[in-house]
């Protein structure tokens, strides 16, 4: 898709997605998405279960675990994939809990990233799909009406142009 320069401005203009109004709309869509709040709840539950588990399993066996706060800091570090250097589980059960939390934390992070990407591109994809549906409908109408070759040619040129734009956008995304 081509990015047009706003009237009265010289030089390069930012793509539409980076305009403050658009970012605000997309940010609100992201924050209002019910899956976001489900992911936030799941993340917090993972952290609390991990902290409680480490605390009760490692309290007597691990000299670094002195309080629930120590276990909570460890759990936050593991689930957020940041990690901590001060506490490492010493029991087999503690290590297994750590591995499970690492896997769940990575999966949760991927889900957040996918949700964020959806919030950024969903409008553009909806517009593109609606335009393609309109073109398909027009082609069907032309076919049913006994079609004028000039109109069919114009519609095919528009389709080729849209497909080229989509291919260019896809190649730009894959190269970045």
Summarize the model shown.
With 176 residues, the chain is mainly α.
Helix content: over 70%
- The CATH class name reads Mainly Alpha
- Could you name the ranges where pLDDT drops below 50 across 5 or more consecutive residues? none
The helix-strand sequence is HHHHH
The number of distinct β-strands equals 0
Biggest sheet architecture: none
- What is the count of structural domains? 1
CATH architecture: Orthogonal Bundle
The share of residues in extended strands comes to under 5%
Distance between the termini: 16 Å
Oligomer: single chain
Structural class given helices, strands, pairing?
A: mainly alpha
* CATH fold-level assignment: Helix Hairpins
What's the total helix number? 5
Which outline best applies? rod-shaped
* Cα radius of gyration in angstroms: 26 Å
The averaged pLDDT comes out at: 79
Structure description:
With 176 residues, the chain is mainly alpha-helical. It has a single domain (17-175), classed as Helix Hairpins (Orthogonal Bundle), CATH 1.10.287. 74% of the residues lie in helices and 0% in strands. It contains five helices and no strands. The longest helix has 54 residues, at 92-145. The protein starts with 19 loop residues before the first helix and ends with a helix.
